[in-house]
Design brief:
Elements lengths: L6 E19 L5 E21 L4 E6 L9 H13 L4 E7 L10 H16 L6 H11 L3 H6 L3 E4 L4 E4 L6 E6 L6 H6 L12 H7 L6 H7 L1 H10 L6 E2 L6 E5 L2 H8 L7 E8 L3 H6 L1
Parallel strand pairs: 3-4
Antiparallel strand pairs: 1-2, 2-4, 2-5, 2-10, 5-6, 7-9, 7-10, 8-9
Helix pairs in contact: 1-2, 1-3, 2-3, 7-8
Length: 282
């Protein structure tokens, strides 16, 4: 963490859904789920500077969105309103995590913004308060706010921290963007998987209910899963385009990523239990 009294630089991490079971559908349209969140040591590096004027200046290279659609801007604005803070901030970062990839990039950026500005603005809000604010921005934001790999239920907001074994991951992004809304609207999506105990997942594993639908809707994802499955069991993360497989060490992961076809993006990352943001701010 590079920091001064008014500045901080933080790694806003990606996540993987090691499994994703959809167990029901609520009357408000949200889906009830069970999932296992694995945080990674890879993500977007974000620079924050607190200012004495209330303006919020948010600049993300590689993400062309108006401020009102940028989750980091929305997080800063929401925190300002909630705390009635009269200070502002300059937030800059280069986008590394692909949009529509299922890696939680936007949610992670929002959570990192809440955590960074809570520190820089001296607000002293609790993690419970910040997570509640984050939930207003998206279902995946609270796990990044709380900053620990976790078992999740509900719409993803009921979190139990877990200690996952250290593994290395190869993550591939085929040349497509997956629409979460379209996946959840698909009539073929399984919505009634029986609930399962967390201990059963650790003993037997789980699956991703979205994978079959995404493979049918996006042939590029299907091809990436087939290719990666040659090296280790490949899975889809969340509802996004990214697929992943785990390996025992960095050397094995590097061997696979070096063979990646030129038409796909990819990276390797280590699974971590504690978010790099929390490690830096501790």
């Amino acid at each position: 963490m590079a920091a001064g009294p008014n500045t901080v630089k933080l790694l806003s991490p990606a996540k993987l859904n090691l499994m994703l079971h959809i167990v029901g559908r609520r009357s408000d349209g949200y889906h009830e789920l069970q999932t296992l969140f694995q945080l990674l040591d890879y993500g977007d590096t974000m620079d924050f500077e607190a200012t004495d004027s209330p303006e919020l200046n948010v600049n993300c290279a590689g993400l062309e969105l108006p401020p009102q659609q940028n989750l980091a801007y929305r997080a800063a604005h929401l925190l300002q309103q909630h705390s009635q803070c009269r200070r502002g901030a300059s937030i800059k970062w280069q986008k590394q995590l692909p949009s529509g990839g299922g890696l939680g990039g936007g949610s992670s950026n929002a959570a990192t913004t809440l955590l960074a500005l809570n520190r820089l603005w001296d607000l002293h809000l609790s993690l419970d308060e910040l997570a509640a604010l984050g939930q207003q921005l998206g279902a995946d934001v609270p796990v990044f706010v709380r900053g620990h790999s976790a078992w999740a239920e509900g719409i993803g907001e009921k979190l139990v921290p877990v200690e996952l074994p250290e593994r290395w991951y190869v993550v591939i992004k085929p040349a497509c963007q997956v629409s979460t809304a379209e996946v959840f609207a698909n009539e073929q999506l399984t919505r009634n998987t029986p609930t399962i105990k967390m201990a059963t997942v650790f003993a037997q594993g789980g699956h991703n209910d979205c994978e079959m639908v995404v493979r049918q809707m996006y042939p590029a994802v299907d091809k990436a899963l087939i290719w990666l499955n040659k090296f280790s069991q490949a899975k889809l993360t969340g509802t996004g385009a990214c697929v992943f497989a785990d390996f025992a060490n960095k050397q094995q992961a590097n061997t696979v990523i070096r063979q990646l076809p030129d038409s796909w993006q990819g990276f390797i990352a280590k699974g971590v239990n504690l978010s790099p943001v929390h490690a830096a701010l501790a």
